Amino acid sequence: MTSGSTPGLTRFNTSDESAAQAELHEVCASSAWGSKLLAQRPFASAETLFTASDAAMAELTADDLAEAMAGHPPIGRPKPGDPTSSREQRGMAGASEELKKEMLELNLAYQDRFGHVFLICATGATAEQMLDALKDRIGHTAEEEREIVRAELGKINRIRLTRIVEAP
To answer: What is the per-residue pLDDT across 17-34, written as a single tens digit (0 to 9) for each?
Structure first.
């Protein structure tokens, strides 16, 4: 992870507000999160950007979290034509049809229970690991799950922000 200023961070810091806002929306669909980060530009380093992201994530309300989650497709069903979604869910690509079917069934049960998609930082996770996490988390209370989702969104945001700051 880069700690100093990079060409990508410089570009982000100096881009016009609408371009920076659009870039942040690709990272996280929460407008509250994006607004908090926009208001703090320019960032001296990637680490200050990540710290600001974490702080903004910690302040999101339940409605803000719901808005953020709405930007994520269900595990096993990446958005067609979306390279980010496909890359992040790569672990599901080689899963057996049986595992994919079980994931879909549990995803739907999870959505019925919590009212939103099952959200996990899928980057680097195997299909089996994601399924195990889903099986474990479906038994949580809504409050427990909301805080786990907040942490998972924070991890996803850091990965996506890293791509921005490390871009040439």
So the answer is: 999 999 999 999 999 999
